[in-house]
Structure formats: C-alpha cells, structure tokens
Amino acid sequence: MSRYYTFTAADAVEYARQFGGVADPQSLVTADEIGDGNLNLVFKIRDSAGKSRVIVKQALPYVRCVGESWPLTLDRARIEAETLIIHGKYCPQHTVTVLHHDAELAVMVQEDLSDHQIWRSELVQGKYFPQAASQLGEYLAQTLFHTSDFYQNAQTKKAEVSRFTNPELCQITEDLFFTDPYVDHERNNVDPVLLPEVTALREDKPLRLAVASLKHRFLSKAEALLHGDIHSGSIFVAEGKLKAIDAEFGYYGPIGFDPGSAIGNLLLNYCGLPGLVGVREAADGREQRLKDVRELWLSFSERFLQLAREKSQDPALAEPGYAEIFLQEVWRDTVGYCGAELIRRTIGLAHVADLDAIKDDAMRADCQRHALSLGQKLMITASQIDDVESLIARIRQFS
User: What Enzyme Commission number(s) does the record list for this chain (predicted)?
Assistant: First the structure.
C-alpha cells in the first residue's frame, strides 16, 4: 500500500524537522508554499525568527495547471532527486544539494537558496550576472561528460539508462517541443494576432522536416544523463554563484538538448528585451545576451574537450580528435534544440516572462514574432551554422 499523501504546510515543517539536517530542528515552525511550476508543491521552511532554512519539495500526481485530468507518475521525484545527486557528485558547486529524499512520498529536502535569485527574473529586469553563463557551461560539461560513454563503462551506462527511463516526463517534452506547436492543439497558447505567422510556420515543409529530425534524435540518442529542463527559470544565481534546480525531466538523451535549451532561453530574453527595458538598455542587454551565448558554449565545449582528453575511459573514444568530431554533432543538435525552445515557449503551453511580461500589446507581438522567426530559421539552417561565432552572426542577420 502506498505511503503517499499530499503534504500540508504543517506536514512539510515536520518533515523538515526530521530530515532537514538543521542543528535545532524544533526551531522550524512555519512553511510557505512557493511553487510556481506545474508539477510540484514547494515549501520554504522558516524558523521562529522568520528565516528560511530548507526547502521541502513534493511531486503531485497530476499537472498542476490542468488538474487531475492530466495524471503523472510520482517516480519523477525519485528521478529528480537521483539526477541532482549524480550531477552534484560531478559539479557540486553548481547543483542544488539534496539533503534527503523519499521515493514513496515523492518528496525531497533541499538546501535553501534564499540568498540566490531566479536567473530569468533577473534577466527580465535587465540585471546581469557576469559569471553565470560560463558557470552554466561548466555545469553542463561536468554533468554531461561524466554520464556519457566517454567516462562511464558500457555496462554501467546501460543500467543507468534503464534506471533513468522517464517516459511520462519525456512524453511531455516530446509533445510540447515537437508536436503541439505545429498543430492546432488545445494546450497551445497562441496570441490571436500571431495566427498568420503560426499558420505559415505549421505549413513550412523544411521546418517540419527539421522538427522530425530533432524529435527522432530526442527519442533515440541516449548520450548522457540530461537535466532535461535547463532553462533560466530552473537556475538560481547570486554574485559569483549559480545553482541548477528542478531536474524532474532528467533522462538519458542527446547531449545537445541541454545546452540548446539553455541558449534558447538566453535568446528568448534577447528577443524580449526591446519590450522590457528602455531602448539603450535593450541594445546593451542584447549585446550581453550574445556574449552570454558565446561564453556558455565555449565554457561547455572547452571543458568537455579537456575532460575527454584527461578522463576518457573508453580507448576508442579516447582517440585524439574524436571528441572534437563528436562535439560538432552536439553543436548541430544544440542549434536545432535552441530553435525548438524559442518556438515552443512562444506559442506552446509554457510561456516565459521574457515575452509575456511585455506590457505593450504591439511590442509584445513584435517580440513574439521575432522569437518565432528566429527559432524557425535556426532549426532550418542548423547544419549550415558551423560554430558559435557563426550562430551569433546569424542571429544578428535575423534580427
């Protein structure tokens, strides 16, 4: 019989007292439910002085924004906790610390990050964290290399692929990225003013072929243990610090998916800035986003190559020059998945504040059109974009 029950605030406080690892557990007295996503309850546990000490996160058995008509497996909580634990093993400085987790209750206790801010919120306000892009590149390189065939032996990796099979959450990604935006689906969220552009996008044969190819690779490439949803809303930043959270979409997939998602979200901010801040601030911010894209990819690719040279365990994959060839494939995937992220966040179910927070209707529509057009062009021309400098030149051309 399942032990699962949905936590109240009082339940979260008691659980934190047991498993939060604080020196004075009885000082934990209140909980605020702060979850703003679609899949979980998130409680900030405070002490008698009102200070937040730990986070208690529990998976719900359904999609929150839809309700019980869209049920979900609770095993995703185990997958999230174990993904974060593995990622934390290889990149502890940039992964939220899991203090405890219980698979049956679908609950985990995490370190409190109250001294950090959600990166997306800061970007929307025009704030800049100079080390964030390179730190995210470091996180991606460490976690993706160490869970790939370059580092893991074949038997271990095959077992890990099975352990992190995540069919229901992958189905959400497959639908929201590769299916829903390209058909008339009730889950989509399309501003009526964009209907001409959306209709043309759905009838674009080269784009539909690019989508098919990206989806096929997502379905079939088990290259590394992905975070699976690494966007600016699942990253906390502070001065000189960055932490990845929310890894319930973790599974073994194509390595390019994670950096593609991350770069796509930087470009969503790039597209939205003219409607979010003043003209001069928008121009400066856009230049900074392009620098962030460059720094993220170079940090990731250079560290991945260094790790491949120093730590590859498979003698065939350690052949000098092979990691460079492999990263070219990853790069093409990255550009394609980046384009898919731009499109799905503009007309699909899960919009982002980088666009939706624009108050002027006409300006918001213009920024949305830019995101759609940029995503479309990047997906179609991904094979022609050889490196990050070419990507930046192409973005400038398309802007």
Answer: 2.7.1.100
